[in-house]
Design goal:
The protein has 339 residues and is of the alpha/beta class. It has one domain: NAD(P)-binding Rossmann-like Domain (Rossmann fold). It has a 7-stranded parallel beta sheet with strand order 3-2-1-4-5-6-7, sandwiched between helices. The N and C termini lie far apart (97 Å). Helix 4 packs parallel to helix 5, helix 6 runs parallel beside helix 7 and helix 7 runs parallel beside helix 8. It is built from 11 helices and 7 strands. Strand 1, helix 4 and strand 2 form a beta-alpha-beta unit. Belongs to the short-chain dehydrogenases/reductases (SDR) family. 17-beta-HSD 3 subfamily. It comes from Lamprotornis superbus. It holds the Pfam family adh_short.
């Protein structure tokens, strides 16, 4: 009797399983199609990303150099050009035969860099002394100095950071105004001065130096990051306004580079596999000119950007806050030790 009941139960279970499988087959097929579609999309996305990396960071290095003078014009204006990325970028443009106009606040450094570039790369150089923290009073003189030049490339590189990573309320009013005048107003007004001439010639390029901290909200970089986010938005929007007029506008978004801007920390100011020198960064960044309107400019930084975008905002912010506190503590300890 027990054997019969057991067999009947097995039969009923087998029948039930067949009925359930039959009714679910449609859903299984639908899920299989969704899975296949997701896989195809990911594969296509990976292929496009790989192609983009090769097009930006590999192919330009293998192919012949682009004639920047013919493509954009004889002269390039580079702001913040006596140190770091600005100086290195100016040298790379000079290497391509472009004449350079350096703009910075230190006359002695300007003279030295101008002479060095002219002698090394056999191009014409000039310089304009300008302290962008002074606000709108200096732009009429800059406009007058540039009015008879054929400006083909403008590199808005000048920028400042805090003395070290810090909380917003610890920043002085002078620091906040300097960040606004130097990081935001300078690029806006320099572009306003140079762009009409480019439009008239129907060719030109403008490069605005943003920062990787605008990838996601970054605490203790708050005002600096916001100013760099402005440049990123400004560049991308302006490109769509003027691309049809032959003007190429690029938002360049580097991550940490070993320059004086990060000298407050011995940890991030040293060259490493993730932190290139300004010269190494600039040699890659210049090769992306004319190819991408928004790029980190360097393949290692591109990997960092991709990883940063994958992180949830809270995780990025938590890690940034943790790291910033360490850097602040390190900077304050070094300052106390030197006093």
């Amino acid at each position: 009797m027990r054997l019969v009941i057991t067999m009947a139960a097995v039969d009923r279970f087998s029948l039930l399983y067949r009925e359930i499988s039959r009714s679910c087959s449609f859903y299984m097929e639908a899920l299989a199609i969704v899975g296949a579609w997701y896989t195809v999309r990911k594969c296509v996305s990976l292929a496009l990303d790989t192609y983009s990396v090769l097009r930006l960071h590999v192919i330009p290095k293998l192919s012949g150099e682009i004639d920047l003078v013919k493509k954009y014009g004889k002269w390039a204006v580079v702001t913040g050009s006596t140190d770091g990325i600005g100086k290195a970028y100016a040298e790379q443009l000079a290497k391509h035969g472009v004449n350079i106009i350096l703009v910075s606040r230190n006359k002695e450094k300007l003279e030295a860099v101008s002479r060095s570039i002219s002698e090394t790369y056999k191009v014409e150089t000039d310089f304009i002394v300008a302290d962008f923290s002074k606000g709108r009073e200096l732009y009429p003189a800059i406009k007058e100095a540039l009015k008879d030049r054929e400006i083909g490339i403008l590199v808005n590189n000048v920028g400042i950071f805090y003395a070290h990573t810090d909380y917003f309320t610890n920043l002085s009013e002078d620091t906040l105004w300097d960040l606004i005048h130097v990081n935001i107003a300078s690029a806006t007004m320099m572009t306003h001065i140079v762009l009409p001439g480019m439009v008239k010639k129907k060719k030109g390029a403008i490069v605005n130096l943003s920062s990787g901290v605008c990838c996601q909200p970054t605490p203790m970089f708050t005002v600096y990051g916001a100013s760099k986010s402005y440049l990123d938005y400004f560049s991308r929007s302006l490109h769509y306004e003027y691309a049809s007029k032959g003007i190429f506008i690029q938002s360049l978004i580097p991550f940490v580079t070993s320059t004086n801007m990060v000298a407050f920390s011995s940890t991030v100011s040293k060259r490493s596999i993730l932190f290139p020198t300004a010269e190494e960064y600039a040699s890659h960044a210049v090769s992306t000119l004319g190819l991408s309107i928004r790029t980190t400019g360097y393949w290692k930084h591109a990997i960092q950007w991709t990883l940063g975008e994958c992180l949830p905002e809270w995780m990025w912010a938590w890690f940034a806050l943790y790291l910033s506190r360490i850097l602040r503590k390190e900077a304050l300890a070094a300052k106390a030790k030197s006093e």
